[in-house]
Amino acid sequence: GQSLEQPSEVTAVEGAIVQINCTYQTSGFYGLSWYQQHDGGAPTFLSYNALDGLEETGRFSSFLSRSDSYGYLLLQELQMKDSASYFCASYGGATNKLIFGTGTLLAVQP
Amino acid sequence: EPEVTQTPSHQVTQMGQEVILRCVPISNHLYFYWYRQILGQKVEFLVSFYNNEISEKSEIFDDQFSVERPDGSNFTLKIRSTKLEDSAMYFCASSDGQGAYGYTFGSGTRLTVV
């Protein structure tokens, strides 16, 4: 089967750096996406890695290692508004579907 | 910025009733999807739709589910004879097929089966 595993919860303080890990076992893998979701709202695209290495987008960076079937999302200079759920998702397959990870609830504290 | 629009935002229905969830994808997108998220759980793929037919479906998408693109703009998910366990958030998404960057989700329909 296909699975993407993430830590269920992470807590950090404002201004800190936090890393959310994702390990995956999927077929038809093109790359790894990351999504943010506030209170059950629409998943919002953050980042995508098609190749191994680091992708940086402002305060957010994402990393992929295909050989290790592993990726992470790095959030820097945490703000209260970053409190949300974060999902990794494998992108690919014949129809370019997304298979989502188990999700990580990030709580940012003052 | 183009949006995927879903209606209604919230629907309450009695067990055994049929519901239709509606979506208007981004106009120049060619690939359409439905996903489901049971409260507190991960987002799950249901079905993908391309060229007016289902291109892939998950094991969740059984005979009680159907999808349709009745005209050039709408994309619907029908659930026949709803069950309590169908209560979830249903997200529509569309893609231009050019990669992960072109994937956009709607704001979802919260379905409550009572």
Distance between the termini of chain B: 36 Å
Number of helices of chain A: 0
The helix-strand sequence of chain B is EEEEEEEEEEE
How large, in whole angstroms, is the Cα Rg of chain A?
13 Å
The largest sheet of chain A, given as strand count, sense and whether it forms a barrel, is: 6 strands, mixed
Structural class of chain B: mainly beta
How much of the polypeptide of chain B forms β-strand, as a percent range?
Answer: over 45%
Helix fraction of chain B? under 10%
Query: How many beta-strand segments of chain A?
Result: 11
Q: Greatest interface and its residue counts?
A: A-B, 26 and 29 residues
Note the beta-strand portion of chain A: over 45%
Strand pairing plus helix content of chain A: what structural class?
mainly beta
Order of helices and strands of chain A: EEEEEEEEEEE
**Major sheet description of chain B:** 7 strands, mixed
How many runs of DSSP E, i.e. beta strands of chain B?
11
Principal-axes shape call of chain B: globular
User: What is the subunit arrangement here?
Assistant: heterodimer
What is the share of helical residues of chain A? Answer: under 10%
- Mean pLDDT, all residues of chain B: 94
Unreliable spans of chain A are none
Describe the structure in your own words:
The complex is a heterodimer of chains A (110) and B (114). With 110 residues, chain A is mainly β. Helix content of chain A is 0%, strand content 61%. The model of chain A has no long low-confidence stretch (mean pLDDT 94). Chain B has 114 residues and is mainly β. In chain B, strand 9 (88-95) and strand 10 form a beta hairpin. The radius of gyration of chain B is 13 Å and the shape is globular. The model of chain B has no long low-confidence stretch (mean pLDDT 94). The chains are: A mainly beta (110), B mainly beta (114). The A-B interface holds A 30-31, 33, 37, 40-45, 48, 50, 87, 89, 91, 93-103 and B 31, 33, 35, 37, 39, 41-45, 48, 50, 55-56, 89, 91, 93, 95, 97, 99-101, 103-108, 110.
